[in-house]
What we know:
Layout: H1 2-19, H2 22-28, E1 29-36, E2 42-44, H3 45-54, E3 57-72, E4 75-88, E5 91-92, E6 95-106, E7 109-119
Parallel strand pairs: 1-7
Antiparallel strand pairs: 1-2, 3-4, 4-5, 4-6, 6-7
Helix pairs in contact: 1-2
Amino acid sequence: MDAADIADLGKRWAAAEVAGDLGTLRAVVADGFRLVGPLGFVLDREQWLGRYQSGALATQRLDWREVEVRVHGDTAIAIGVHDQEATHQGNRVDGTFRATHVLVRDEDGWRIAGMHLSPMGAPPVFAR
Length: 128
């Protein structure tokens, strides 16, 4: 059941990113959430959410696929492919990334505590 719950959470997260749904995004990430972006930058929860709140990040498409989940008690690791079409501050930030999500389980269920994105293949266009 845990792997199915985590897969469902991944679908809700990806749909919320495309919709810019701050309520769902707030609900699916843990308080201490951190994102390590594809160029090595680190965003805390409020910085990550703020990109949507300000309109700086607009995601047109986000596929979260080929996901493998490993559960270790109240912690889980989900590794998959994050394929996106998006803009940040008007610049294209499209890319395909190998992504690792670290999830934690609390009394309300699973939450994403961290994400790490690594470009697959050539560097993404925005990094050249």
